[in-house]
Design brief:
Length: 468
């Protein structure tokens, strides 16, 4: 089976969140089980583009409104990612350093989708599946079905994976002319709530829909930023498939980003050495439990709760624990977290920004990872933490509910029901008491490191999903 993945992100080329991790791993594991999986994404002006070897496989033009842009599709020559990677190079639109955040993002991603379909349309064969990820590629199912320009693709099965239904890419009808010619009687397939909505269109037009965890599939039927009734209507073609993690990248025994590698047998010494390295850099006390947060500092992640939680916990514990934050996002949250540094010097610190190597080091050296999310379609951080012997403290929602069971229920994590200051503080208190029980802590560490959240199972689940 030949599967073409379309995405705005793919690790290590360009990653903003979990979408990048998924698209960087799933195709590799699909190839490992005997299929041909490829990734098509924009060519951003970044380090990967400049440091890798490419060859041109297609040259053309794409029209965006009244402007024409040259298109070149580049193939990465070495297959170093474990799958064929194709970058859509459109000077003037896509050759920018950031993935998102430009005023013309609608035009950028629409041009990417049209150019990629132009290329595939002229192939001598047809792929077995076109797999689209989130709204940035959400108009592909509509265009393949309805635009005369792509008539050879209208019977190619399309699949959509919803990584986060909160982001939908809506734009006004004044931009309808940007979409290649189609029968206007089909314009209803583009519309939702009075606008052109790429995610809604993909939900309507894709042959199959998946979400990144079974629980998230249930949750979006009643909480999906306005798409609830549409998702309920399309439930028969929808499936929840839990994400995996790439065990080749996330392996404490071989991870080159760690101060000291470790395995199940050497976990205690390994975590101690990595914790010491973190504490040396961030002026923390290695004799105390280390609580961490890694991720976007936004409301979805419950990050707005963190300044009050950390202030309360550090004050009430009288300095008996450490806290380290890695992330960026809403400026007011960043500022409040930064302000705590002077008040709790020696037991609290932050790194505001993105730092891949540091995230690996934190997973390896921390004792507990906080995830008080309001929305968490799957969550990968808790799986990384488990793999590195770090105990997750999570809200029972989405993929967190599917992957972490509370120690009180015979499990291995610490769970709470609400994204609230009091619930999270209570969970932190339980974690602190667990830390005092050295034997129980060691037993849980060894247990969670043996849990299998690799892509092996999930990759086969996706193959089955295409064929249902």
């Amino acid at each position: 089976m030949e599967i073409i993945h379309f995405s705005a992100e793919c690790y290590p080329i360009a990653k903003v969140g979990g979408l990048g991790d998924v698209v960087g791993a799933l195709p590799k594991y699909q190839n490992k089980i005997g299929h041909i999986a490829k990734v098509v994404m924009p060519a951003y002006d970044n380090r990967f583009l400049h440091e890798s070897e490419f060859e041109g496989v297609y040259d053309g033009w794409v029209e965006v409104g009244t402007r024409n842009f040259q298109v070149r599709i580049l193939r990465e020559k070495t297959n170093k990612l474990g799958f064929d990677l194709y970058l859509v190079h459109i000077p003037g639109l896509l050759n920018r350093p950031k993935v998102y955040g430009y005023d013309d993002d609608t035009e950028r991603f629409l041009a990417f989708q049209i150019a990629a379909l132009d290329w595939i349309h002229q192939w001598q064969h047809k792929p077995d599946v076109i797999h689209c990820h989130d709204y940035h590629t959400g108009l592909i199912p509509f265009m393949a079905l309805n635009c005369a320009r792509f008539w050879r693709l209208n019977n190619v099965p399309t699949a959509l994976t919803i990584h986060n239904a909160q982001y939908q890419g809506q734009f006004g009808w004044e931009k309808l002319h940007l979409i290649p010619v189609f029968d206007l009687r089909n314009s209803g397939k583009l519309e939702w709530d009075g606008a052109i909505n790429p995610l809604a269109s993909a939900i309507k037009c894709a042959w199959k829909i998946s979400t990144v965890s079974p629980s998230y599939m249930e949750e979006i039927s009643y909480k999906a930023n306005g798409l609830e009734t549409l998702l309920q209507r399309e439930r028969s073609k929808s499936h929840g498939i839990l994400n995996g993690i790439d065990n080749d990248v996330w392996d404490p025994a071989t991870d080159p980003m760690l101060s000291k590698n470790f395995n199940l047998r050497t976990v205690e010494a390994g975590k101690k050495a990595n914790k010491q390295a973190l504490c040396d850099v961030f002026n923390l006390d290695p004799s105390k439990p280390l609580f961490t947060f890694i991720g976007r500092l936004v409301g979805e992640k419950g990050a707005d709760l963190l300044p009050e939680i950390f202030d309360n916990v550090l004050r009430q514990s009288e300095g008996a624990l450490n806290i380290l934050v890695l992330g960026s996002g809403e400026k007011n949250v960043e500022e409040k977290l930064e302000q705590l540094k002077d008040r709790y010097r020696g037991i609290y610190n932050t790194y505001i920004g993105y730092h891949e190597q540091l995230s690996h080091q934190i997973y390896a050296g921390a004792d507990f990872l906080l995830m008080p999310s309001r929305v968490e379609p799957c969550g990968l951080n808790q799986m990384y933490a488990l793999r590195y012997g770090t105990i997750p403290i999570v809200r029972r929602i989405g993929g967190l509910k599917d992957t972490v069971t509370d120690i009180g229920d015979g499990g291995f994590g610490l769970c709470h029901d609400q994204a609230s200051v009091s619930d999270v503080e209570h969970a932190v208190g339980r974690a602190f008491h667990l830390y005092q029980n050295t034997k129980a802590l060691k037993d849980i560490r060894k247990f969670i490191m043996k849990l299998d959240h690799s892509w092996d199972r999930s990759a086969q689940d996706y193959i089955n999903f295409y064929q249902i």
